[in-house]
Amino acid sequence: MTHSPPTAVSAAPIRGIAYMVFAMFLLTVGDALTKWVGTHLPVGQVIFFRALFIYIPIVFIIHRSGGLAVLRVTDRKGLISRALFYVSATATISTSMILLPLADAVALLFAGPLFVTALATPMLGEHVGWRRWAAVTVGFAGVVIMLRPTPDEIQILAILPIVAALFSALRDVTTRRISATENSTAIMFWSNALLLVGAACSAPFGWEPMGFDDLWQLALMGIIVGIAHWVMIEAFRLGEAALVAPFKYTGIVWGTLFGYLFWHTVPDAFILTGGALVVASGLYILHRETRARSD
């Protein structure tokens, strides 16, 4: 019995994982900028200008891809669903960061990959075996260990980041489903358009005057986040949702690294133990995927 070369068969899923890791790096940079600007600007205003400046990389991508023809839509219903999930996820994630302690909110938001795994079978027909379920669960346990939300903070507001995680999972699973007919640029363009309109509706509730520093920071944030979301869409195109989504956990690794480099915080035993579990679970999922596709 002969076997196909594993490197040739497994190239697309591995590229999908690499894209997701890179996307999380970019999103962590964008989150840091968002947190900085959000200390003195309303969240709706921040989201609006971030969404506006996201069109800088989008326009560049459209130009490189052959013009406005890349924005043609085939599955309008699917694209609208994805856009609604995208807007809902962005709004609830941003609000969670404001209303809850940062560590608690992030820990709860990382329930997203678990939701993706649960939704991948009914919505996409992807097979998720018990080993992958176990690996994802271990990864989530590692996130909880790293961020260890205290029981005193588990309150009604804690439901909000769980809802945000669910919206994020629905967005990601829908992205995987419609990527068979829609290109990444069109998905990002129209989803961001709805976000821009929704955020603009917050203007009557009080936006603050902005200076040059605010504008360039928001512009940089938009460019980085725009590239990150395009890369993430490509990740879900290249690999199954249940395979790629767990590598969102690497955002915690990037966050820990940035904390050490820029805020001089040293990881404690909880961070090291949880990070080891996250990395181990991701590597195990990659091992299972490569082995299954090479058999």
Walk me through the structure.
By secondary structure, the chain is an all-alpha fold. The chain has one domain. Helix content is 76%, strand content 0%. It has 13 helices and no strands. Helix 4 runs antiparallel to helix 8 (159-178). The chain starts with 5 loop residues before the first helix and ends with a helix. Residues 1-9 have low confidence and may be disordered.
What's the count of strands?
0
Biggest sheet overview: none
- Cα shape: globular
Q: How many distinct domains?
A: 1
Helix content: over 70%
What is the N-to-C succession of helices and strands? HHHHHHHHHHHHH
Strand content: under 5%
By secondary-structure content and strand pairing, the structural class works out as mainly alpha
Number of helices: 13
Distance between the termini: 10 Å
Average pLDDT? 80
Q: Which value, in Å, is the CA radius of gyration?
A: 19 Å
Unreliable segments of 5+ consecutive residues: 1-9
Please write out the topology.
Layout lengths: L5 H4 L1 H27 L5 H23 L10 H24 L2 H8 L2 H13 L5 H18 L11 H20 L5 H17 L11 H27 L2 H4 L5 H14 L5 H26 L1
Helix pairs in contact: 2-10, 2-12, 3-9, 3-10, 4-5, 4-8, 4-9, 5-7, 5-8, 6-8, 7-13, 9-10, 12-13
Give a concise summary.
The protein is mainly α. It has 13 helices and no strands. It has one domain.
Entry keywords:
295 residues; disordered N terminus; mainly alpha
